[in-house]
Structure formats: C-alpha cells, structure tokens
Design goal:
The structure is a homodimer of 405-residue chains.
Chain A lengths: L2 E6 L7 H14 L5 E4 L2 H6 L3 E3 L5 H8 L20 H13 L2 E8 L1 H16 L5 E6 L15 H22 L4 E7 L10 H4 L10 E3 L7 H12 L4 E7 L10 H10 L7 H13 L2 E5 L4 H4 L6 H19 L5 E9 L4 E8 H4 L11 E2 L4 E2 L1 H7 L11 E2 L2 E2 L10
Parallel strand pairs in A: 1-2, 1-4, 4-5, 5-10, 6-8, 6-9, 7-8
Antiparallel strand pairs in A: 2-3, 10-11, 12-13, 14-15
C-alpha cells in the first residue's frame, strides 16, 4: 500500500490550516493509505520530521481548520537542481521510499511549485512512480495560472477593514494636514496594497494614495501630490507596499535609510515615506505596519477564501486518485457578479517560479490609485464573514498535537 | 430653556461612537432641551463649530454607535488656567451663552478631565450655572478614579487576539531563533502591553516578553534573557510599549536611534529593540506596529467595553438631570468573577491630570512578565463578541451627516 505526504512551503496564511484539515478529510474519505505530513516544509521531509496526519483525531482536525499559521510548520527550503545537489535528491528519495510515499501534496507559492515540478523529475530519475500535486497558497496572490490563491482574500479583507477603521480614527483627529500610512506586504507585487481601493471610505475622505512595486516611486511627484491633497483635506491616507522602488531599481526603504543613516535595516518603506513627508512638508505622520498580523488574522478571514482553501485540497485528492501528476490545482473564475468559480488544474512547469504582477491596465500611476476594473476582480474575494469558537473573550486556537508516524 | 453641549477630547477609540450615540438617546429621553456637539473638541467649541446632535436621525444614530473614531472629531486643545489665557475663557463663555448651554458633557481622558474641572471654575467665574459632567474615555486606561475607561477593553481584546494569531504564524516559520515584536501604544503606562499576558498561547509557546514603561529597560539584561529563551525555543514573542525608558529616564526609541543615527524620529521602540537584537544576537526579527488600528478596531470590540461606553453616557444624563456638577462618571467593579460593575461618580478635581500606572505588584520585572493577579482584573474587560452590519465583505461605516445647529 502506498501512502501520501503533505508539506507546506513558504510563508503561512490565515487559512492554510483550512487546506490541511480539508486534505486530511478528503484523503481519509478516499481510503488511500496513510497521509503523512512533514513539519517545516521540505527540510522536515529531508530530516524525517514526519507526523501521521491521517491519524489526527477529528476534534483536533476541526480546530486545525480554524488555526492561523496552520499548526504544522512551513519552511523556505527548496529543492535544488539535481546537478547542484544530488545529495539532497538522494535524501528526499530515501525518505519517500522508507515511508512508501506514492503521492506528494505540496502546498505553497511560486517557488514551492518549482520544487513540486522538480519532485516530478526526482520521481522520474529514481523511478518512484510518484504523483505530485501542487496546492496553491500565498497571501501575495502572485501565483500564475490560478485566478487567485488561498490566503490572499483573507489578508485583503483584513487590510481593507483595518484601513477603513484606521482612516476613521485619523479623520477624527486631523485638524491640520496629517498623513496615515499603512505599510503592507508585497516585495515584488502590489496585490495587498489594493486594499487602498477595496476599503469603502466615505466620499468625504479622499481615496487612499496607493504606492505599488509595479509603479516606480518618484519622491518629488509624490510629495507634490500629498501637498495638493492637503490643500483640500486634512486627513490623508496612504497605503505603501514594502517593495516600492525608485527609477534606479532599488527598494526605496533601503535606499532612503542608507542615504540618511548609512544603514539598511531600520524601518521599512512606511517609515521612509514618513521621513520624506516630515522633511519636505512638515506634516504629522502616523505609520502602521501590520506585518504578520495581515496574514494571520483568522478572526477576520474571508468566507470565500476559506471555501477555496478547502476546495483546492479536495480537488488535489481527486487529481491524485485519478492518477494524475505534475499539476497544480487552480481556481477558475466563471463570472465576477454573481461570483462563480470552480477548481481546475494547470501543469506545474507552466507556472513554477513565475510571478504575476498587477495588470498594467488597473494602475493609474499619475493619481496613485486603481481603476474601477480592479474592483470587479477583487471584491468577490473578500466576501463573507465567518464565525469562530470563542471563550473568555478570545478565539480558541489550541496547539495541534500531531500523532507520531 | 437650557441646552446641553457634548465634546470629545484626546485620542479617539473604537467605542467612542457608542458613548455619543447613547448620550443622544438618553438626552432625548430626558427631554432636556437640545444637545449640541462641538466638532474637534474644545477648539470646535471655541470656534463655534457646533452641530445639533439631538436632531440626528435614528438610523444615523445607530450607525454612529458602531463607528470607530466616533464620527464627530476629537481634539487636543485644553482649557488653560484663567490667568494664562483669559481671552480663551471669554470665547468659551460667549459660545456657551449664545447657545444657552446649561450642561456640558466632556468625553475624554485625564487631561480632558482637567479641562472639565476648569469649566466648572469658568461657570463659577462668569456665574453661568453650568452643570459639567465628565465621561471617561481612553484606550490607555490611565484615568484615576474609575475601574476602567471605555476604549481600553476593546483595544486590549484586539491586541490580545492579534498577538495570538501573529504568534502562531511566527511559530510556523521559526526554524531558527527569531523574534516577533509587537509595539503597542502607551507612552507612560503599560496597560495595553498587558495583552502579552492576556493572549492565550499554548504551553508549547513561551509566554511573551513584556516591556513596560513602568519597568526601566536594561538592554543588557534583556539581550541575555532573549539569548536564554532562544536556547529553549526558536519562536520568541515580545510586546513593547512605545514609551519604554532606560535608567537615565529617556525614551529608548529616541535614545537608540539618536545614538546610532543622530536623529530622533525614524522608527519607534519596536524597531529600536529589533536593532538591538539583530546587532547583539544576529536573530531575525519581525516588527508589527498596529498604531491607529489598535484603537479603531471596532470589528473586534469587546461587548463588555461597549456596554460600559453606553452606560457612562446614560449615567452622565442622570447626574446632570439631578442637578450635579463637577463629577466624572466612573465604573465601579463589584466582583471579578462573575464580573459585576455599575456606574458611579467621582469629583473631577480628584482625578484631573493624574495618571494611573500598572500596580507594582503585578509586574515581574526580572522575567518580563505579569503576575497572575493582573489577569483577574484584565480578563473581564475583553469578554463578549459583537456583531456589525456587513455588506459586500466590509462593515458598514457610513459618514455621519450631522444636522446643523
């Protein structure tokens, strides 16, 4: 009898536990042997840090479904090309053989899908007959070949709601020109910064200025824009992607701090922008950096996102059971409004290591905003509220005791 | 017929709208003339920026009750001593007479309660016969003379939940020693940093290190503690009050940045701690700064806090109607568990400008943690979840159109 192995790879999300829990349930239902899971990604697989996910008691599986961060441990180790590291390939092979693994489920983003594609090569090279299926997961939404990736919708909902709330606070206090900056994740793409357009602010509040990695950052033009905004309204709101760059291609966060202080790591893009505005305009500036909070806020997860996080797991088992390999489950959009979607698949090789950026036609660079067509895509992804078990004022996020192999 | 005037003063909260909405309802029920409100605090009163709160349509009053930031506008202008600024007193007097104000409701923290006390003096000096009632409000929880202040419980709940979620994310990713830092508000008191003790983390995660303004910060002792933690666990969580100070009495945020870069405003305490740990231990450090988000997160408000925010407004009207003046409504705790409380009152003069710090007996300075007796006080304040009206994935936070005077 052949077993299956699941691992998570890359940054975790608020709903990755929902994917893991749904995979366990679907795998059980398929009666397809045991389902092992590696802790901390590929490095856990290599080191033999495996647990028996299929033996997880049902109450704990349900708790796992609600758990931000996923309760298993992810990792950033990737599979090298064979020529570069044949020892690594041999280690992986040995573990797969030892545990009689016939199916591999790789839950990750674009780097992880490259590892999944290499695991197909590994199977061929060592004649293991593996079925390798990728499950999408990234708050960055930068995976090619899928309409969206589980994790993104919840992060976007959290950031949009947070921006709506913080903007109302900022408005209440702004009796002279002042700026509230929210720095969001996204080193190469501005998907999460779209919260500045998704957030529903009253007309009395100017729409947020959105700074994207896809639009080169020109400090002079930006300062002039903020000065102009301040002539109309005291409360200015700005969303900054951590990865904004200037025309020379360098990250603004590093560049500004390096120029001023000869040092690169203190603060990020948000504080660099704050320094710029204080120095050039003398405005009061507040900076919020949600950091891990934006990808862990399970209490404000999107019901749509959770439904998709679970669906990709169920579809992965269907693909493996029908003998397929070398595929990533994807989400296919049928219509924007009403929003209809289903799960399909795409070859790992077509998407591995590619990076999906915001469509150019969405971006109004001159005005630091997004065009209306962006919203037709984004709004369905944040739809629906969820409930969690609460006790004594806090959500129940237990520790997952994974059964030993 | 004499009217009443309400204004907000100091930083706003997630539940200050609930106080305003409850005051409007209670004032209407008392049939006590019109209730005006000044925009942006005392400065709005002085400038005659008044609205007719008692004419607010009921659906908008209900929406106001859910609105973070309060929808009216607060301000930081305080009433000076008469000798220092007799013109300011004359301006206030003129507005009060023009609008036939007989009752003043001042909704704020300890600085604002000093202004409320001075408004009693102003009434005496100009023989206005004012009734002046203070309504407590501060996320900092540093008001004396009340068991807690509306705004604090919700901010504490939000930070505690956020820390639980971010800690689970951090745990999932920590395959070598790394630190997650959450910087919370509190320049002089550590009430919000108590989220590090309130957050319910599994035993497998070491309890968060809590850095308080009430405990002088010793960098060497802290680095040694983190090094010791790292020998047991990879995932280290730390909550830092923005206002931590070293033995020389200076803010650590300013001091560290000034020493390194000759500049004071870039980054805050969280980034200063991050720099310290990177430099001394070489650890990876992530920093979250919720900033305004922590006092605006109405979506995660404490039901207990909202009940108290409304109760103080109703009690303020009762006090005014019974002819009292010079009092602040307070919250009196009857028991911890089950948690029972009621509204009472205390003389403004007894509490104005005082600052309540964390009880010394709660603080375990050696271990950067709080003792168990802190939790008996804190836990009831975050109890209870609320529901909001949502549409298309976002809460409904409309713009309040205040009726003109």
């Amino acid at each position: 009898m052949r077993n299956a192995l699941y691992f998570q790879s890359g940054g975790v999300t608020a709903v990755i536990g929902a994917t893991a829990a749904a995979l366990i349930a679907a795998h059980r239902q398929a009666s397809a042997g045991r389902l092992f899971a590696a802790e901390h990604g590929l490095s856990g697989l290599i080191n033999g840090q495996l647990v028996d996910a299929s033996a997880l008691p049902e109450p704990m599986r349900l708790a796992l479904s609600n758990l931000p961060g996923g309760g298993l441990g992810s990792g950033r180790t990737l599979l090298s090309p064979y020529d570069k590291n044949p020892e690594q390939w041999a280690q992986v092979r040995d573990v797969l053989i030892r545990y009689q693994i016939g199916t591999l489920y790789v839950n990750g983003g674009n780097g992880s899908m490259d590892t999944a594609a290499k695991l197909v090569e590994l199977s061929d090279r060592f004649a293991l007959g593996l079925k390798v299926i990728g499950l999408p997961k990234t708050i960055d939404n930068d995976l090619e070949g899928t309409d969206t990736s589980p994790g993104f919708g919840s992060a976007l909902k959290y950031l949009s709601v947070s921006l709506m709330e913080a903007a109302r606070d900022h408005c209440a206090m702004a009796i002279k020109p002042s700026v509230f900056i929210m720095e969001v994740m996204g080193r190469h793409t501005g998907w999460l910064a779209t919260c500045g357009a998704v957030a529903r602010l009253p007309e009395a509040i100017d729409s947020p200025l959105i700074l994207l990695p896809e639009a080169l950052f020109d400090p002079d033009h930006f300062v002039a824009t903020v000065r102009d905004r301040a002539s109309r309204s005291n409360a200015i709101v700005c969303v900054v992607s951590e990865g904004i760059r200037t025309a020379d291609g360098r990250f603004y966060a590093q560049q500004n701090v390096a120029q001023t202080y000869g040092h690169e790591q203190l603060g990020g893009a948000g504080f660099a922008i704050a320094e710029l505005l204080r120095a050039q305009l003398g405005f009061k500036v507040h900076v919020a950096i949600p950091d891990y909070m934006q990808r862990a806020a399970r209490h404000l997860a999107s019901a749509t996102d959770i439904a998709q996080a679970e669906a990709v797991a169920r579809h992965a088992v269907v693909l493996a059971q029908s003998g397929q390999t070398g595929l990533m489950v994807n989400i296919v959009r049928e219509s924007d409004s009403p929003y209809h979607w289903h799960c399909g698949d795409i070859a790992l090789k077509e998407i591995a290591n590619k990076e999906r950026r915001l469509p150019d036609g969405w971006i109004d660079r001159q005005n630091y905003t997004l065009r209306a067509n962006a919203l037709a895509y984004l709004q369905p992804l944040i739809a629906g509220e969820i409930s969690l078990p609460w006790s004594a004022g806090l959500p129940e996020y237990p520790w997952v005791e994974w059964p030993a192999v």
